[in-house]
């Protein structure tokens, strides 16, 4: 019975004075209280059951996680053991990841994977395992042999090997990795590197450069590219009186043309590198060509004179800060006051916020010796005791040996250099093609040497010179 009805019944029984009715109402009241107590007890039991269920569920999930973690650890150990066995040739590779490349490597060359793992310094390629590196070396050797007449009797087998490794690259890394080969004989020209190989080469170039790797790199599909620029900017003006017209502004846009040019490297190697199953050919390319290509890209970016590209040093619109002439030396001093002037010369805060200082090693040594108005070094020490943090006013310092120090001053023997400050994102490299690879044994036939070359096509533009500040003729030594 609802409580309201029972309360009404109590009032009637009390008013009537009927003892029997009053007794019955009292019994009903006690029954209702008992029912309520029972409901409360049931609700408490349900709550406890829900809480217990939640705890049990969590315990089960924790147990599953722990068990899975144990399985993963055991699987990792088995995978590591299997990898060692694969590299030593004791078992066949699996079908997943880079292991899929191993099937495309002839048995007599599989030792290259173990060599690549044992001597990682020969391969300055981040993020790749020894099997991938061995596959790349096999590709280079096979491609080179196809272009050398002495191996013409092996042409069919070499062609099959090359197609097999290209297909493996495609299967493991996606269809974009497979590039058709054209001109696989010496008379027909060079062989285009598969995309996956070309990416490794470009990474090696980047690792051996200090500035190019920071620039904006844009793939293009034409030998001439128009980059729009803002010749006249928008403007706003305060209105002095009501109803007056807003001052009009009509921005104009121009364009900068980037023409793609070819950058090539050339070297020699003994023909033994084609006959021996080792990783030397790619390591040789890295040391003989990649450092030179990286240095050329850095030099053109910062100090190109217009042939073929104009670097930021002489770009039209760059902000030039004059450091003056030192009291006893040729060239302005890189003192604290002049460094502050260079820091604020670019003007826009957005440029400084993403900017870096760029200088050669001689000028860096000069900056390290400078102190501020409180006698503290302008280049703060890092966490390693005695080691500089390579920041100036909180912005990174890029020290590049690829920048020429400048001419020696004949009267004093001093050396002058250029210091740069600006955002690398304002420097644009357009990449037209990846790497082309050609070899020939004819040029050095009598010395049993192989001539090889690598060529890339790219174009440069100092996109926003006004975001950069340059201090020329700074005393560096």
Describe the structure.
This protein is of the alpha+beta class and 477 residues long. It folds into 3 domains: 3-72, no CATH class; 99-196, no CATH class; 208-477, Major capsid protein gp5 (Major capsid protein gp5 fold). The protein has helices spanning 3-16, 19-87, 99-102, 111-118, 130-146, 155-173, 195-207, 272-275, 280-303, 336-345, 349-353, 361-368, and strands at 191-192, 216-219, 224-232, 252-259, 261-270, 319-320, 356-359, 379-381, 388-392, 395-399, 416-422, 427-440, 449-462, 469-475. The protein has a 7-stranded mixed sheet with strand order 6-14-11-7-10-9-8. α1 (3-16) runs antiparallel to α2 and α5 (130-146) packs antiparallel against α6. The model is unreliable at 86-96, 119-126 and 175-189 (pLDDT under 50).
Strand adjacency order, main sheet: 6-14-11-7-10-9-8
The Cα radius of gyration reads: 38 Å
Level-1 CATH class name of the largest domain: Alpha Beta
Shape: extended
Q: What is the number of helices?
A: 12
Report the helical percentage. 40-55%
List SSEs in N-to-C order.
HHHHHHEHEEEEHHEHHEHEEEEEEE
Keywords for this structure?
477 residues, alpha+beta, Major capsid protein gp5 fold, 3 domains, seven-stranded mixed beta sheet, five-stranded mixed beta sheet, 12 helices, 20% strand, extended
Describe the SSE topology:
Blueprint: H1 3-16, H2 19-87, H3 99-102, H4 111-118, H5 130-146, H6 155-173, E1 191-192, H7 195-207, E2 216-219, E3 224-232, E4 252-259, E5 261-270, H8 272-275, H9 280-303, E6 319-320, H10 336-345, H11 349-353, E7 356-359, H12 361-368, E8 379-381, E9 388-392, E10 395-399, E11 416-422, E12 427-440, E13 449-462, E14 469-475
Parallel strand pairs: 2-12, 6-14, 7-10
Antiparallel strand pairs: 1-12, 3-4, 5-13, 7-11, 8-9, 9-10, 11-14, 12-13
Helix pairs in contact: 1-2, 4-5, 5-6, 7-9
């Amino acid at each position: 019975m609802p409580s309201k009805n029972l309360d009404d019944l109590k009032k009637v029984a009390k008013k009537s004075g009927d003892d029997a009715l009053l007794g019955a109402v009292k019994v009903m009241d006690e029954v209702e209280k008992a029912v309520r107590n029972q409901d409360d007890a049931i609700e408490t039991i349900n709550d406890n059951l829900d809480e217990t269920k939640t705890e049990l569920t969590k315990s089960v999930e924790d147990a599953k996680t722990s068990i899975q973690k144990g399985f993963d650890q055991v699987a990792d150990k088995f995978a590591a053991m299997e990898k060692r066995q694969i590299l030593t040739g004791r078992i066949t590779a699996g079908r997943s990841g880079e292991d899929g490349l191993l099937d495309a490597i002839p048995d007599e060359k599989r030792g290259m994977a173990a060599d690549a793992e044992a001597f990682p310094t020969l391969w300055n390629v981040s993020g790749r395992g020894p099997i991938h590196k061995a596959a790349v070396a096999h590709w280079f050797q096979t491609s080179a042999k196809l272009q050398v007449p002495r191996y013409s009797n092996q042409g069919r087998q070499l062609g099959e090997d090359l197609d097999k490794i290209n297909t493996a690259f495609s299967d493991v890394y996606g269809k974009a990795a497979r590039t058709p080969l054209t001109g696989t004989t010496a008379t027909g020209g060079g062989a285009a590197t598969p995309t996956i190989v070309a990416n490794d080469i470009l990474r090696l170039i980047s690792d051996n450069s200090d500035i190019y790797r920071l620039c904006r790199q844009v793939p293009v599909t034409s030998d001439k590219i128009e980059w729009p620029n803002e010749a006249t900017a928008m403007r706003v003006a305060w209105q002095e009186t009501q109803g007056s017209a807003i001052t009009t502004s009509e921005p104009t846009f121009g364009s900068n043309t980037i023409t793609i040019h070819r950058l090539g490297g050339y070297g020699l190697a003994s023909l033994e590198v084609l006959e021996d199953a080792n990783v030397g050919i790619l390591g040789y390319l890295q040391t003989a060509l990649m450092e030179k290509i990286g240095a050329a890209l850095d030099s053109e970016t910062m100090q190109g004179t217009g042939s073929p590209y104009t670097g930021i040093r002489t770009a039209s619109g760059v902000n030039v800060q004059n450091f003056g002439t030192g009291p006893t030396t040729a060239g302005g001093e890189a003192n604290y006051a002049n460094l502050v002037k260079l820091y604020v010369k670019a003007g826009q805060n957005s440029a400084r916020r993403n900017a870096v200082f760029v200088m050669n090693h001689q000028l860096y040594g000069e900056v390290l010796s400078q102190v501020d108005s409180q006698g503290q070094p302008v280049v703060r020490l890092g966490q390693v005791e005695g080691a500089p943090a390579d920041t100036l006013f909180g912005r990174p310092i890029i020290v590049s040996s690829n920048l020429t120090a400048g001419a020696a001053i004949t009267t004093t023997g001093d050396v002058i250099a250029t210091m740069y400050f600006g955002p690398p994102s304002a420097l644009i490299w357009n990449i037209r093609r990846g790497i082309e690879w050609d070899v020939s044994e004819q040029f050095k036939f009598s010395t049993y040497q192989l001539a090889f070359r690598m060529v890339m096509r790219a174009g440069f533009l100092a996109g926003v010179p006004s975001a950069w500040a340059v201090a020329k003729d700074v005393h560096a030594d």
